[in-house]
Design a protein that fits this description.
Number of helices of chain A: 7
Number of strands of chain A: 5
Helix content of chain A: 25-40%
CATH superfamily of the largest domain in chain B: NADH-ubiquinone oxidoreductase 51kDa subunit
CATH architecture of the largest domain in chain A: 3-Layer(aba) Sandwich
Oligomer: heterodimer
Shape of chain B: globular
Largest sheet of chain B: 4 strands, parallel
Order of helices and strands of chain B: HHHHEHHEHEHEHHHEEHEHEHHHHE
Distance between the termini of chain A: 32 Å
Strand order of the largest sheet of chain A: 3-1-4-5
CATH architecture of the largest domain in chain B: 3-Layer(aba) Sandwich
CATH superfamily of the largest domain in chain A: Glutaredoxin
Number of domains of chain B: 3
Largest interface: A-B, 79 and 87 residues
Order of helices and strands of chain A: HHHHEHHEEEEH
Structural class of chain B: alpha/beta
CATH topology of the largest domain in chain A: Glutaredoxin
Number of domains of chain A: 2
Shape of chain A: elongated
Largest sheet of chain A: 4 strands, mixed
Radius of gyration of chain B: 23 Å
Helix content of chain B: 25-40%
Chain lengths: 195, 449
């Protein structure tokens, strides 16, 4: 739990180089930190600040605005149940109650074994597929209570690990730009940042 | 009115096994528009998009060509920012476009960048959309390797980069100036317009065009077939095809690409090939025509065409193309309270009327739902609404920088006007009438946060 690893520091350098101004890489680098540790540690934030020339307070100021960034550990599987209007109309609130009963925790809490954190979330853009939920940001459309129970059994037995990476990993595939293909003209003529 | 046989534009590859790959995209005509555009001038591409009368598909419905025309001449560098932060409750179409046809979006980005002479584009995808991020990363990697993005694009001598970026959970970032703040690595709070109109002072205070995913996905077809062919679809006022996410109490919820202006809400909800009608044995109570921010519509609005001008005139908006259907089993107070909870949760906190007002509205509605409502609460709700959006009119006036606060007013104004007795029943009935939460037997757990 700490600063970015040497490999991730190299990745950070590649990401920073894609932006005309380095601070634009802040949110992507916070994702790198969360992918590394499952949550965003104070040490990682300080390290990111060093890489971008920002104070820890500036890094925290941005980090704390965005819901996906967790500043303390969460379960291996983050279960986000949508209860917004389209899901509410088709049983989203009842689904959340079922998830809470099945896992034995209220929304906002983590099971004692550290496997699951449950959240009651806002619309996740699967409205025609209600009710829906995400596990580590992977979608489950039109999910029934029985379907959720089967999913929990699978997750506990490790049968979905190919499909659902640990919390912190959103995309498993990153943009990579082959040497010589980068145009690099985005910052041409841009005045240096003041302050 | 009927379901028309107009050609599909942005969904043609949705059912192909390999529609998301470069091979599948090129086999079905992909990147031909780019190659032909690169033999013409940026002004020619701009001309086709202006002729198409393509209204923005994100929510405001502003014509894309007109927006592009606001760029001050000879100020560089310019940027293109793609708004893929789809989060308006009820809205589900940009995610599909990014997942199922990422190259179509990339080609649209390239064509738009060529037209407005942008040197770099950023595709800002919503943070929660992991699969869309993966599909776009794979597509961009293919496009870079094939020489279609980056240095000397398709051998034309024109160079520009496209960078995939994603957020981290904040509805407000869908607002274009908040999106720019977020892309600069800051808290996603909207900027005041003026002076921060993106076309003039956008990303890094340079001229910037922010366009929605669906808007850009239409551009390759427009360049291939001509702006006039696009404008010939739909009506003079609302041109082209458009994606509508139809959700709620219909038989066939789904995302449908239909002809604007010639298709009605009734067609969308009732046609057998579209919504298929209400659920068995149920009748329509209300529907939201354009996302959670929109005032509600009812039976008497069903025959309105899906046209921006018509819906605006009738007192609501097509917004983000999200139609949420509620049948006669729906509890209007609960539905209204859920939408208001959303806006209270998503208020960024910059403007006091929104930050405090939406929170008050949420708390008052929760009090009513819990059976602790007071008779004065109904007027109090409207009073708070009036402080956020003076006059509670449509289109809304606002005491805030952006429209988020006034968006929380729409469901309250709608539900209170039409279903006031339901609110009164909660207050009259007290805790006997209240919606009771089911207690959770906590087997083993630790408090989070």
């Amino acid at each position: 739990m700490a600063r970015l690893s040497p490999e991730n520091e190299v990745l950070a350098g590649q990401i920073i180089a894609r932006y005309p101004r380095s601070r634009s890489a802040l949110i992507p680098l916070l994702h790198v930190a969360q992918q590394q540790d499952g949550w965003v540690t104070d040490e990682a934030m300080a390290h990111i600040g060093e890489l971008l020339g920002l104070t820890p307070a500036e890094v925290l100021g941005t980090c704390s605005f965005y819901e996906m960034f967790r500043r303390e550990p969460v379960g291996t599987y983050l279960v986000n149940v949508c209860t917004n209007i389209s899901c509410q109309l088709l049983g989203g609130e009842e689904l959340l109650e079922h998830v809470e009963q099945r896992l034995g925790v209220k929304a906002g809490a983590t099971t004692a074994d550290g496997m699951f954190t449950v959240e009651d979330v806002e619309c996740i853009a699967a409205c025609t597929e209600a009710p829906c939920l995400q596990v580590n940001y992977r979608y489950f459309h039109r999910i029934t209570h029985q379907g959720f129970d089967a999913l929990v059994d699978d997750l506990r037995a490790g049968r979905r690990s190919d499909e659902i990476p640990p919390h912190g990993t959103t995309t498993r595939l990153r943009q990579t730009i082959p040497a010589g293909r980068w145009a690099g003209v985005g910052a041409v003529g841009l005045a240096p940042e003041v302050g | 009115m009927a379901v028309t046989d107009a050609p599909k534009i942005v969904t043609t590859r949705f059912d192909l096994e390999d529609g998301h790959t470069l091979a599948g995209y090129e086999r079905t005509g992909g990147y031909a528009a780019l190659r032909s555009a690169l033999r013409t001038s940026p002004a020619a591409v701009m001309g086709e998009v202006k002729a198409a009368n393509l209204q923005g598909r994100g929510g405001a419905g502003f014509p894309a060509g007109t927006k592009w025309g606001f760029l001050p001449p000879d100020v560089h560098p310019r940027y293109l920012v793609v708004n893929g932060d789809e989060s308006e409750p009820g809205t589900y179409k940009d995610r599909l476009l990014m997942e199922r046809d990422p190259h179509q979006l990339i080609e649209g980005v390239l064509l738009a960048s060529y037209a407005v002479e942008a040197k770099q584009a950023f595709i800002y995808v919503r943070g929660e959309m992991a699969f869309a991020q993966e599909r776009l990363a794979a597509a961009l990697n293919e496009a870079y390797a094939a020489g279609l993005v980056g240095r000397d694009i398709a051998g034309s001598g024109w160079s520009m980069d496209v960078v995939l970026h994603w957020g981290a959970g904040a509805y407000i970032v869908g607002e274009e100036t908040a999106l720019i703040e977020s892309l600069e690595g800051r808290r996603g709070m909207p900027r005041l317009k003026p002076p921060f109109f993106p076309a003039v002072k956008g990303l890094y205070l340079q001229p910037t065009i922010v366009n929605n995913v669906e808007t850009l996905a239409n551009i390759p077809w427009i360049v291939t077939n001509g702006g006039a062919a696009f404008a010939a679809l739909g009506t003079e006022e609302s041109a082209g095809m458009r994606l509508f996410a139809l959700s709620g109490h219909v038989r066939n919820p789904g995302v449908y690409e239909v002809e604007m202006g010639k298709t009605t809400f009734r067609d969308l909800i009732e046609a057998p090939v579209l919504g298929g009608g209400m659920r068995q044995g149920r009748t329509l109570k209300a529907f939201i025509p354009g996302g959670a921010s929109a005032p509600w519509f009812y039976e008497e609005h069903l025959d309105l065409p899906l046209s921006k001008a018509t819906v605006d005139k009738a007192g609501s908006m097509l917004g983000s193309g999200a139609v949420v259907v509620m049948d006669d089993t729906t509890d209007a107070v609960k539905a209204c309270a859920r939408v208001v909870r959303f806006f209270a949760h998503e208020s960024c906190g910059k403007c006091t009327p929104c930050r405090e007002g939406t929170t008050w509205l949420h708390q008052i509605l929760q009090r009513i739902l819990a059976g602790d409502g007071r008779w004065s609460d109904l007027e109090l709700l409207l009073d708070v609404c009036d402080n956020i959006s003076p006059g509670i009119a449509w289109p809304p006036r606002q005491t805030t920088i952006c429209p988020l606060g006034p968006s929380a007013v729409s469901p309250i104004a709608s539900a209170l006007e039409r279903f006031r007795p339901e609110f009164e029943a909660y207050i009259q009935g007290g805790r006997h009438a209240a919606a009771r939460p089911v207690p959770v037997e906590v087997l083993a757990g630790v408090a989070g946060r």
